[in-house]
């Protein structure tokens, strides 16, 4: 059994929004079989604190505009090294590239299947 279609849809909208803000290595992980609190982790990174903030803002705006969803919680925005957006069924991790390399969430959750986010790289921002 995999993540529900609604969760996958939210992850795809969030992934595209992150890519539109030039996020690097946008990856969706289906953690529905591994944890009970959420279905999908979306992980992406930026090269600076300013870009991390812009990516998080862009994702939040897209999910509000396109799916009328607000995060239940937003953490880490003051330092903007790792901003977490918790939507319940998906959790979005926007990390500074250095922190992403150090914490290596993809390695920690390597048993989780990778989701095809269907990101359109050529789409205008």
From TrEMBL:
GO term, biological process aspect, one: negative regulation of translation
Gene Ontology molecular function: ribosomal large subunit binding
Localization of this protein: Cytoplasm
Key words, A-Z: Cytoplasm, Repressor, Translation regulation
A GO cellular component entry from the record: cytoplasm
InterPro entries for this protein: Iojap/RsfS/C7orf30, NT_sf
Gene3D superfamilies reported for this sequence: Beta Polymerase, domain 2
HAMAP family attached to this UniProt entry: Iojap_RsfS
Family statement drawn from the similarity comment of this UniProt entry: Belongs to the Iojap/RsfS family.
NCBIfam families recorded: rsfS_iojap_ybeB
Cited function: Functions as a ribosomal silencing factor. Interacts with ribosomal protein uL14 (rplN), blocking formation of intersubunit bridge B8. Prevents association of the 30S and 50S ribosomal subunits and the formation of functional ribosomes, thus repressing translation.
Quaternary context: Interacts with ribosomal protein uL14 (rplN).
Name listed for the protein in its UniProt record: Ribosomal silencing factor RsfS
